[in-house]
Amino acid sequence: QPWVAKGVGFEVQRCPMKQHARKPAIAALLLAFGLGTAGLAATGQLHRASGSTASVGELERAIAAHPDAPTWAAYGDALRAQGRYAAAAEAYQRSLALDPSPRAVQINAAVALAQANEADAFFAYLTRLTITDAKVAADLVGRPELAPLHGDPRFALAAATARGQAAD
């Protein structure tokens, strides 16, 4: 039997088990999205609508006000986008000192070291990473950004060690 549900400003005709009220569900989704967006904006985790992240200057001011791990990581991203790889690697290291768990930041720190042509620092970091999180280290050695290091004799050994530890 079809029945009619009347609400404020709308009317929904339903057949049991065949249709559902869409307007209340859509309203709930929009409300949840709005609250989530407001929460991200309040914590500084929402990027601009254009898709670009905060500028280096904005991030430097944010770090001066509240130097947390996500802000340091975003600062590293911004520096790396500008080709300032050594400074980006340092920013990522500061982020990891505050919160060592984000996998993306661990990988970005290593890639920035490689892009900065800091081979010694890269291999020291990769060695530590192989000990602390071999899966991340194994994933890292396959990255195309590390191709310039493939000629270094240490790379083959480091890659084999990381893959071996990750398999265990």
Note down, in words, how this protein is organized.
- This protein has 168 residues and is mostly helical.
- Helices cover 64% and strands 6% of the residues.
- It is built from eight helices and two strands; from the N terminus they run E-E-H-H-H-H-H-H-H-H.
- It has helices at residues 22-43, 56-65, 69-81, 85-98, 103-115, 119-132, 134-140, 153-167; strands at residues 3-7, 10-14.
- It has a two-stranded antiparallel ribbon with strand order 1-2.
- Strand 1 and strand 2 (10-14) form a beta hairpin.
- The radius of gyration is 24 Å and the shape is globular.
Task: Describe the strand arrangement of the main beta sheet, using strand numbers.
Answer: 1-2
The proportion of residues forming helix, as a percent range, comes to 55-70%
Tell me, briefly, the overall form: globular
The H/E string reads EEHHHHHHHH
| Beta-strand segment tally | 2
Number of helices: 8
